[in-house]
Amino acid sequence: MTFCVENETGEDFPFSIEETARQVCESVLEAEGCPYEAAVNLLLTDDQGIRELNREYRQTDRETDVLSFPNLDFAEAGVFEIPEEREADYFDPDTGELLLGDICINVGRMREQALSYGHSLLREFAFLVAHSMFHLCGYDHMEEAEARLMEQKQEKILEAMGITRGD
């Protein structure tokens, strides 16, 4: 798996951002049965950075905690059936890896939520990465049943990693 991290905030963390994010991403892809090696990009930004991205790509002029930019169009969430005519769009021609998409996390909001929910920064970071990874795998939470499914999947990944609420 290729995993690129850009920390434009310059903030330090009491854990390895790269290693934690890689473990979460790999766990999600394994749980979803992704048959390909994949590439994911992670951007750590601030309120202003995420607001600009949200405004530009979602036409929503406000901050948020995390944004996901999937590269794939899934016919069904978690089903990695790539149409032959889309292979050039979905795979890196040099590495052969599936270009899954981009994750953007608002570090300030992540810190606020960890404090608000009473758990560690590690737990909040891992949760946001897992949440975003499921979006990159075609899941959404627009309807109640979809939201419950995503929540169950996220919690299962984090529990398997030993990252639980209250940590």
Described by the principal axes of the CA atoms, the overall outline is globular
How much of the sequence lies in strands comes to 15-25%
Distance between the termini: 27 Å
**What integer value in Å does the Rg equal?**
16 Å
Which structural class should the secondary elements be placed in? alpha/beta
Pattern of helices and strands: EHEHEHEHHH
Q: Please bin the fraction of helical residues.
A: 40-55%
> How many beta-strand elements?
4
How would you portray this structure in words?
The two termini are 27 Å apart. It is built from six helices and four strands; from the N terminus they run βαβαβαβααα. The longest helix has 17 residues, at 144-160. It has helices at residues 17-31, 47-58, 87-90, 107-117, 121-136, 144-160; strands at residues 2-7, 38-45, 66-70, 98-106. The protein has 167 residues and is an alpha/beta fold. It is 45% helix and 17% strand. Helix 1 (17-31) links the parallel strand 1 and strand 2 (38-45). It is globular and about 45 Å long.
Chain-wise SSE layout:
Layout: E1 2-7, H1 17-31, E2 38-45, H2 47-58, E3 66-70, H3 87-90, E4 98-106, H4 107-117, H5 121-136, H6 144-160
Helix pairs in contact: 1-5, 4-5, 5-6
Q: Which key phrases capture this entry?
A:
17% strand
Give the gist of this structure.
It contains 6 helices and 4 strands; from the N terminus they run E-H-E-H-E-H-E-H-H-H. With 167 residues, the chain is of the alpha/beta class. Strands 1-2-4-3 form a 4-stranded mixed sheet.
